[in-house]
Design a protein that fits this description.
With 157 residues, the protein is of the alpha+beta class. The protein has a single domain (11-148), classed as 3-Layer(aba) Sandwich (Cytidine Deaminase, domain 2). It is built from 3 helices and 7 strands. A hairpin with a 2-residue loop joins strand 4 and strand 5 (103-104). The relative contact order is 0.20.
């Protein structure tokens, strides 16, 4: 038997104000995207913003449905919209933020497993890393690639 370890790397910032300008712009877009959330059941509003290789930013917000689990997460609404709108462009980065009744959570919101796998798929399609920015009221995490939030990515097809 051999023991193995998986290491992840990320940057931590005290606020979005410390982010580089391009990342700060994407974070601001994700925060604005929260306004489009439809969350009458959980009251947890999530916003996401994807930066494309052509510089365009596409927003998404979570959409709940009484016929659970028919809703969709903010990250996937943003990525699917970006993929449909710009099918020949790569997704360079994604930012996400969550909060209850408009108040951003203290700790960064993290994506669900399904959203992580969709991020991995678009990163694989691009053939280069896609950064992931998770925003909280008191700290922000930036991961340089999806592999750092989803080790052992399913890509066996």
């Amino acid at each position: 038997m051999n023991q193995k370890e998986i290491h992840i790397h990320f940057e931590e910032y005290a606020s979005i104000d410390e982010l580089p300008a391009e990342d700060r712009e994407l974070a601001d877009e994700a925060i604005q995207a929260m306004q489009g959330a439809y969350a009458p059941y959980s009251h947890f509003h999530v916003g996401a913003a994807v930066r494309m290789s052509n510089g365009q930013i596409v927003r998404g917000a979570n959409q709940e449905n009484a016929a659970f689990p028919s809703g969709l997460c903010a990250e996937r609404t943003a990525m699917f919209a970006a993929g449909a709108r710009y099918p020949d462009k790569d997704m360079r980065s994604i930012a996400l933020v969550g909060g209850v009744y408009g108040r951003i959570t203290d700790q960064p919101a993290t994506p669900c497993g399904a959203c992580r796998q969709v991020m991995a798929q678009y990163q694989t399609k691009a053939g280069k890393p896609m950064s992931v920015i998770m925003i909280g009221a008191h700290k922000v995490w930036k991961f340089g690639k999806v592999d750092d939030i989803l080790p052992l990515i399913f890509d066996s097809i």
